Amino acid sequence: MVKSVIEMIGEARAQIEFVSPEAVSEELATGNPVLVDIREPVEWEQHIAGALQVPRGLIEFVADPKSPRHNADLGPTRRIVVYCASGARGALATLTLRSMGYENVANLDGGLKGWIAAGLPVVEHHGDL
C-alpha cells in the first residue's frame, strides 16, 4: 500500500518538537539556535534574518558531516529550528534530521506564515537574490 504525503506529514508531526514563533524569536535573541529555511530558492524573497537557506532536497547532504556539502554550522548537538512556508515540509525535514542523529531539532510551528502572522520581522528581497 502506498503511503500518502498527508500520512507521512502526520507521522512526522507525531514524532517531532514544535516551537512557536515567539519562542523561536526568544531563542534567536540568545544567539543559540541555527535556523534552517528549507524552502526552494524561488520562495526566498522573504526569510528570517540569519537563517541558513537549504532546500529540503539538500538537507541530508548539508547535515551529513561526511558530505562535501556539509555546513559546519549544523552539528548533531546544536539547537536547530527548521522552517518552510507553513510547516509541512519543515515537519518532514525535522524528522529527517532526527533520523540522522540530530538530538535538538524542532520545527517552527506554522512556518514562515506563522512567523509573519505573529508580527515578527523578515528580510525581504525583491529580485536581488
What is this entry, summarized?
By secondary structure, this protein is an alpha/beta fold. It has helices at 5-15, 21-30, 59-63, 88-99, 111-117; strands at 17-19, 34-37, 46-47, 52-53, 80-83, 105-108, 123-124.
Describe this structure in words.
The protein is α/β, with parallel strands linked by helices and 129 residues long. 35% of the residues lie in helices and 16% in strands. It contains 5 helices and 7 strands. It has helices at 5-15, 21-30, 59-63, 88-99, 111-117; strands spanning 17-19, 34-37, 46-47, 52-53, 80-83, 105-108, 123-124. The strands form 2 sheets. The protein has a 5-stranded parallel beta sheet. Helix 1 crosses helix 4. The radius of gyration is 14 Å and the shape is globular. The relative contact order is 0.23.
Strand tally is 7
| Helix/strand class | alpha/beta
* End-to-end C-alpha gap: 42 Å
User: What shape does the CA trace take?
Assistant: globular
Overall radius of gyration: 14 Å
How large is the share of residues in beta strands?
Answer: 15-25%
What does the main sheet amount to? 5 strands, parallel
Query: Would you list the SSEs in sequence order as H and E?
Result: HEHEEEHEHEHE
Q: What's the rounded overall pLDDT mean? A: 94
Number of helices: 5
Walk across the major sheet and give the strand order.
Answer: 1-6-5-2-4
Specify the helix fraction band.
25-40%
pLDDT under 50 segments (min length 5)? none
